[in-house]
Fold this protein.
Amino acid sequence: MRKANPNANAEKQKRFRERQKQKGHKEVRGYVSPEALKCYAEIADKTHWTDGDILSNSLRITYAAYKCGQIKLLNDWLKENGY
């Protein structure tokens, strides 16, 4: 019986990361679009938050909008303002 390649998963992950970089995405705990990266850079510059803080606070804001029934309002604002 043949053993599976122990490096197969690492190689697959490396190929995935390379494809994301070629698309212009940056890993910040996931891959983000170039538009989102501009927002990320501005938030990081103004707040001096870490990647984890930015992600955490973004999720908390989105969740708060959802819980308050304002997710459509937030989404519409993002679309109207080019985000």
Summary: Helices lie at 8-22, 34-47, 51-67, 71-80. The first helix runs from residue 8 to 22. DSSP finds four helices and two strands in the chain. The longest strand covers residues 26-27.
